[in-house]
Design a protein that fits this description.
There is one protein chain. This protein is an alpha+beta fold and 551 residues long. It is 53% helix and 13% strand. It has 19 helices and 11 strands. Strands 3, 4, 5, 6, 7, 8 and 9 form a 7-stranded mixed β-sheet that branches. A hairpin with a 5-residue loop joins strand 4 and strand 5.
Amino acid sequence: MTETMNPGRDATHAVFNQTPPRINLDLFQTDPLLDLMCAGFADPIRENLQQNGRFWGSGEAREFARLANSDLPELKRYDAWGRRINEVEFHPAYHALMRRSVASGLHCSVWERGGEEEPVRHRARAARLYMTAQAECGHICPMTMTNASIASLRHSPDLLSEWGPRLLSRTYDRASRNPAEKQGVTIGMGMTEKQGGTDVRQNRTHAEPTNQGFHRLTGHKWFMSAPMSDAFLVLAQTENGLSCFLMPRFLPDGTANTIRFERLKDKLGNRSNASSEAEFDGAHAWMVGEEGKGVRTIIEMVTYTRLDCAVASTGLMRAGLAEAVHHCRHRHVFGSELLDKPLMQRVLCDLTLDLAAAVALSFRLAEAFDLAADRPEEEAFARLMTPVAKYWICKSAQPFLAETMECLGGNGYVEESIMPRLVREAPVNAIWEGSGNVMALDVLRVLGRDPQILAMVLESFRQELGHNGRAAVDVLAAAAEVAMEDEGSARVLTEQLALTAAAAALRRDFPPVFADAFIETRLGRPWRSTYGMLDRRFNMRALLDYAFPEP
């Protein structure tokens, strides 16, 4: 055999036409869509976002994420001497992620007053959360719950006064001890039980009052996430109905509360975050809010977590599509870049429209949170669109990320790639704090309690959509009438609300091509189940280069 026919071992094992790693990027500077959402922010806020973007786009952050999700949390029930300790052991990378997010205020910044972020505090935090989610989502769970818990604790000013300073601390303190002795604390949540799940009114955990001002809780929780939190907001039954309680892991005298973690859940994704099953054996807890009004008290916490679900899912979508575009930009097939192939362009552009819509809608919702206290129309938008945005964005993320994985082919399917973790991570936000049916039913509840809310939100759509608005608003008004009579059609209404709200946000905040293409393909045509259905009227490459500029 001649030398030209036998290239030899070195040539056989040469690596070429492989995509370089997508690391050491500034996730803020390289994201024009995010930049549009933060265009009016003061310079110090943008500088802070750039610092966060550089870290979460770094190789160091990606390695922390890999380690935290490969070396999983482990429950240590007993110490070497047989004493029950109920400790969860994490890889140091998890603590590094927690330390970074606490330092950036991901757990508390919307409750801080004064400073540059005051008028845009929800949007600024959403920007940080969106970039953090692109790197690692598991540790976001305690960040989200701690942030949201303050909304519920406001119903008990004495408890908020006691816990508030440590909740607002930017110091991560992982020690297991009396929270009063710690520099900073986190709070988790325990709502669901084996027999009820979403129907928390079936909860069997029982609370007995004491003459010392606290209650003793006996029962269980089927899911109690972030078990190393310093306290938990939990639901339990009293003589007057389901009530909300703050249950610390350690009591003021330093002894451990009688909370027993029985096992950690073996989950599909979100694996760096421990989720436990817990038993309460007369555990000490303090009532939060009014007795018998536990759902009303804890639902404020749930509302904030739903905003985070939407924002974090959007971040996952950005991470997956950025990997796909990066791969297609560097991979050559049949004589040219994969990115230049017409079918691939249409798939990627179709994905980009959903990403842009998710960015626009999630940040529009965060804006409503910022403005709700002073503007009734924004308060109405926040009440109605929180379950709507959570429903559509979190559901969209799952098929979206599966499609982005397919863009990488086999390279995306192996664990050395980031893609499997992104795909596994996506379902949790659609399930956590209310699955799709719960969100659709919440939409009906909001409309049933105050019919004027729909009129206010539809008027905002009409104004933002311009000449396209009347037909969309008429369709939504008709869908709402049907859904109020037919509960089974609530998903139809919820999805149409989401698509119209996303189109309105795109029209208001993005270059016209985004809204034009989104309205044409999402509002103007029947439902379709796969990506790549755009026609040739749109400049595919220009849209991709805008959304994903080369670094």
